[in-house]
Amino acid sequence: MSAPASNPTIVVAAVALVRDGAVLTVRKQGTARFMLVGGKLEPGESARDAAIRETLEEVGLRLREVQLLGEYESAAANEPDHRLVSTVFLAEADGEPTAAAEIAEVRWTPLDPAGLDDLAPMLEHNVLPELRRLASAPPAQQP
Q1: Of the N and C termini of the chain, which has fewer Cβ atoms inside 10 Å?
Q2: What stretches in the chain show pLDDT beneath 70?
Q3: What CATH number should be reported for the domain holding residue 78?
Q4: Is residue 139 included in any domain, yes or no?
Q5: Nearest to 99 by CA among 6, 28, 18
Q6: 132: region left, alpha or beta (phi > 0 left; psi from -120 to 50 alpha)
Q7: Model's pTM, two decimal places?
């Protein structure tokens, strides 16, 4: 049996909730890496709707001010030899997140996570640099 021509792709939607110089991250049960809140889209569901649903299911927060941050591709954190395509939204939410569903732990991860070695590749290499860029940009350049 020959290997597939390309790595399988996982398509997800995720949410970046930023407060006080940190972004909300979660670690799923049985995994070691922290990532954004989010997950796979259900059939017929838009990325935005999936991000809103997953945030409520995983950390009990209702989102407001949901806007597109970007679409990113990286290695998947927990599935070896898989690629991850993630549509990421920047949003706001009131209240404090609480781990629910498959989430084992929630953490506010600094936008400049010096010394942390437990971040998902998409978060570390794509989203955090973009969030740092936005945090340092003049207000007129922010989405």
Answers
A1: N
A2: 1-5, 139-143
A3: 3.90.79.10
A4: no
A5: 28
A6: alpha
A7: 0.88
